[in-house]
Amino acid sequence: MMDAEERDDADRYRAPALDKGLDILELLAEQKDGLTRAEITKLLGRNASEMYRMLERLVARQYVVRSAAGDRYSLSLKLYALAHRHPPMNRLIAEALPLMQRFSDRAEQSCHLAVYDRGNLLVIAQVDGPGTWGMAVRLGSRVGLIDTGSGRVMLAFQTAEQRAHMLAEHTKVKGEVTIDRDALEQTCEQIRTAGFSQKDSQQIFGVTDLTFPLLGPSGQAIAALTCPYLRRIDEYVAPTLDAVTAQLRETVEALSMFREEAS
Predict the structure, then answer these.
(1) Which residues pair with 64 in a beta bridge?
(2) Which domains does the chain have, with CATH numbers?
(3) Quick one: average pLDDT of 96-112?
(4) Which residues of 9-21 are buried (b: 16+ CB within 10 A; e: fewer)?
């Protein structure tokens, strides 16, 4: 418990408006499908007018997004974007790299980890396979949100409001293939059902992109781990596509458990 001096300091440095905004963000962080303004007002024990003003400012600053119908509010991905420049992102990379290296050694394939960043995906970690040949995405590359396995998995494991916000922020990268919005929604539904994405690369012939989401506590993707699988056609017997898929799934599950234990 706080002593009298600590309570005095807490009262002296109170910032009511900031507290209201943080209360809203923390509340929405726990909600998978968002909340109405009335629900937010009731749960926080505030009056409707102050919640209206605060929500309008959070929407204007893009920390919160409205549903298409305009009656529900949920977190945007802006906090994720800010976190990219914060030590927790470095911690994610530090945790992921040993597991990615172990996967690449077993699967004899490369892999890369990408996160959402300002409308597309940013590659924050990459490991080469151990063989003579390989397919690698350069560290720090920005890859398309619409036509890559990483992008589609990131879109699939978001709320509808967050997905709309990501698509609104999206700008085409060089060579990006367009896709109809309805077709994209169907693809996202298929990925959610399967739990991962397996598709022929839309950038390079002969590559099969395998992608799994790294899910946060709310069940939304905070990163995507991709293996651009190359099939050997000589006499060397390399791990099969099915075997590599299972190994990539195990890698993501191990990383998720590690993060839960560390939190």
Answers:
(1) 75
(2) 4-75 (1.10.10.10), 81-262 (3.30.450.40)
(3) 96
(4) eeeeeeeeeeebb
